[in-house]
Design goal:
314 residues, mainly alpha, Arc Repressor Mutant, subunit A, DnaD domain protein, DnaD-like_sf, DnaB/C_C, DnaD
């Protein structure tokens, strides 16, 4: 279910492109969604359902994970988790709802995704169930089976008290999380370094090819496409667009941005796809020329009309 206040979310209304919103609505409403906000789905299935290429889906996934930070995806288990699922969908308890949540959480293979969704679950008894799957043994999870409605209000107190064994597990989990965090930081630093190199290449091409050395504002607008586009190779696509602008002798920002926007709107996300895109446009133009009749040129003679009365005096 999608609430009407979905459109009031500033992330949706201000930061997402129309393509982002379409993809987000798909993630919230596709047939694979579950009550707990974690479900199995492949990128191939997403591409098939939405009519996109797998490369386009991967680009959108990267934007939602790294830029918008509203989902997580485990490529090994092929499980996807939606961060704010609990905030908008888990407001009501009761035995049928709790039984459904318990059943679906047991099927989740990556427990870190459960902890990720649990961060935005506000209802305490449901939150307690999520937390128990993050810390308790399988034997302890079986205690949830057959729980009656009168016990739901006591779930928090029953499963937030930790013994010595659970404390040791928690410490071990923290060590693992710290290790994962350190690895993530290293990856982020590497990506940041690559981004700086990309910025340098784009700015150098701009300055050296007559787009306007002192036009700082235009450079900033162009660099926006490095961080906020669907392209799989944003730097290469920007450089390609500037090369086209140079060959056309139109060295203006709006011309370059227009090229990029046309590619993005037509889901042309890599350099390899540009050649196919241009070839299709060329074939379409030639087809229109063949179908449309030739218009008579100016000054051409009119059609001959026979007048039987011409030259006769009566």
């Amino acid at each position: 279910m999608v609430r009407t206040d979905f459109w009031l979310n500033p992330v949706v209304s201000e930061e997402m492109t129309p393509e982002d919103r379409y993809f987000f609505l798909y993630l919230l409403t596709n047939p694979h969604t579950t009550q707990v906000g974690i479900y199995k789905i492949t990128k191939k299935q997403m591409a098939f359902d939405m009519g996109y290429s797998i490369e386009s889906v991967e680009a959108l996934m990267n934007r939602f994970i790294q830029l918008h930070q509203v989902i997580r995806y485990n490529p090994d288990t092929r499980e996807l988790a939606i961060k704010n699922w609990g905030k908008y969908n888990l407001h009501k308890g009761g035995k049928p709802v709790m039984d459904c949540i318990l059943s679906e959480l047991k099927n989740v293979e990556d427990s870190s995704l459960i902890a990720y969704v649990a961060e935005c679950v506000d209802k305490e008894d449901i939150l307690a169930v999520y937390e128990s799957f993050c810390t308790n043994d399988e034997g302890e999870l079986e205690d949830f089976e057959g729980v009656d409605e009168s016990c739901h209000d006591t779930l928090t107190s029953r499963y937030t008290i930790r013994g010595q064994k659970e404390e040791e597990k928690e410490k071990e989990n923290k060590k693992q999380q710290q290790h994962s965090l350190n690895s993530s930081v290293d990856i982020d630093l590497e990506r940041e370094s690559l981004k700086k190199e990309d910025v340098k290449e784009v700015v150098e091409f701009w300055d050296q090819n007559g787009f306007g050395f002192s036009n700082i504002h235009a450079k900033q607008q162009l660099l926006y496409w490095l961080y906020n586009s669907s392209f799989l190779q944003p730097k290469d696509m920007i450089l390609k667009a500037m090369e086209i602008a140079c060959s056309s002798n139109i060295r203006r920002l709006n011309y370059v941005v227009g090229i990029l926007r046309n590619w993005e709107n037509d889901s042309v996300l890599t350099l390899e796809e540009i050649d196919t895109y241009d070839e299709n446009k060329k074939q379409g133009t030639e087809h229109r020329k063949l179908v449309e009749p030739d218009k008579p040129s100016k000054g051409s003679s009119k059609e001959f009309q026979l007048d039987l009365t011409a030259g006769e005096d009566w």
